[in-house]
Write a structure and sequence with these properties.
The chain is of the alpha+beta class. It has 2 domains: 90 residues, no CATH class; 34 residues. The protein is 26% helix and 30% strand. The chain is built from 3 helices and 7 strands, in the order ββββββαβαα. It has a 5-stranded antiparallel beta sheet with strand order 6-5-4-3-7. Strands 1-2 form a two-stranded antiparallel sheet. α2 crosses α3. The longest helix is centred in the last third of the chain and has 17 residues. The N and C termini lie far apart (56 Å).
Length: 152
């Protein structure tokens, strides 16, 4: 699919597909409210970025079901934010630097010995298991929350 925008050509057939996202529009002020939408992020051979946004339009009494495709030109920063931001995006190729990988803490941890009744230890261990984290991680989170409350 090809569009000419501001005298420049944006063509999905000659550009590189970088990422894709799918969602259902949930905005009562949007004329496409409740419809399925898909966006694909492309990069042209010249390095420009654009989104091809497809909206599913259901059949009505006058027309058959169809797809409406819109193109949105993006800056490098907008494309990076769309692809690496908080969207649920499937990335095929990332032309940007990946965010830094998490590393170990600079300061080594310290040990706190805590004596609790057996029933409390079981309740805490069960809570950690339900949360899907280690007992140590669960306890650290509790300490952090408690410290924040005291500091506030």
């Amino acid at each position: 699919m090809k569009r000419i925008i501001n005298g420049l050509t944006y063509n999905t057939a000659t550009s590189t597909l970088l990422a894709r996202a799918e969602w259902q529009v949930s905005d009562p002020f949007d004329p496409h409210d409740g419809r399925e939408r898909q966006a694909e992020l492309y990069q042209t051979r010249g390095g420009a970025f654009f989104l091809a946004i497809t909206t599913e339009i259901p059949a009505d009494s006058d027309r058959d079901a169809r797809q409406k495709v819109e193109f949105e030109v993006m800056t490098d920063g907008q494309a990076r934010e769309w692809m690496l931001g908080e969207n649920d995006v499937e990335v095929f190729k990332n032309p940007f630097e990946d965010p830094p990988e998490a590393g170990a803490e600079q300061e080594p941890g310290t040990t706190i010995y805590l004596r609790v009744p057996p029933a409390l230890k079981k309740a805490v261990a069960d809570a950690a298991e339900i949360a899907g984290i280690s007992l140590n991680e669960w306890a650290i989170r509790c300490f952090e929350q408690g410290a924040k409350k005291v500091a506030a």
